[in-house]
Specification:
- Helices cover 39% and strands 15% of the residues.
- The chain is of the alpha/beta class and 279 residues long.
- The chain has a single domain, classed as TIM Barrel (Alpha-Beta Barrel).
- It has an eight-stranded parallel sheet. A two-stranded antiparallel ribbon has the order 1-2.
- Strand 7, helix 5 and strand 8 form a beta-alpha-beta unit.
- Helix 1 packs parallel to helix 2 and helix 2 crosses helix 3.
- It starts with 5 loop residues before the first strand and ends in a 20-residue tail after the last helix.
Amino acid sequence: MDPMPTLAANGLNMPVLGFGTFRLEMETVRSILPEALSLGYRHIDTAQIYGNEAAVGEVVAESGIARDELFVTTKVWVDSFQPEALTASVERSLQHLRLDRVDLLLLHWPVFGSSGMNPTLEALMRTKASGLTRHIGLSNFNIAQTEQAVSFCGEGTLATNQIEYHAYLGQHRLRRVLGRHNLVLTAHTPLARAELVNDPVLWEIGSQYGKTAPQVALRWLIEQDRVAAIPATSNPHHAKANIDLFKFSLSQEDRDRIAALDRGKRFVDPDDLAPPWDD
């Protein structure tokens, strides 16, 4: 099995394709994640709010895969953003995951109290300093919030901003900001809640390579500089197809056609969590 390409921005060494576990129940994780690992996935994305960290931990512990071959991400939920609560929540996550550290720890949504984000960022940096995580980063932060976080933490401290990104949502301005600070863009919802599965342009492009529309959509993401993708699925067939991306490349014409599909369409926009978006 060939090793998957990795992204190394700001010291990160993260596989460009991860296995997302959003909306996967515990039993589903117990059944699908071993399949994913057997297919070659080594980057696993979970979160406290998903309620499946313990199942991820069980599978990882039983996999027989060396710890240094796996890249595990989890995210702190907004109810643990107070500095005194954040570290305790991460320690609980590590107990669930059966790990002594994660590879990447993110703040899940930019929801802060009257003291603002800086005390939470300081607590996040302490988790790295104390060895609870190798890397730290953001999730769903807009441009102004990303700039503030980088300014407070210092250049090179944060590894990624995990955001919604796919062919229907170009994120042009935020992508430029992430590039300027050498942050990886980790694309959640990379198939636009399955809407890209039926896109005729993607199917037409895929026909040239013997690939499906979802495979083309994912390949388009990971061919970009400092972009990773974390598709989630409970279907073993889809898990296998999603990782079958590394023996073809898109032409520049194909990439331009896919980029032209951008319609500023967002699928993840919870009223109680989302910041003011830039696009």
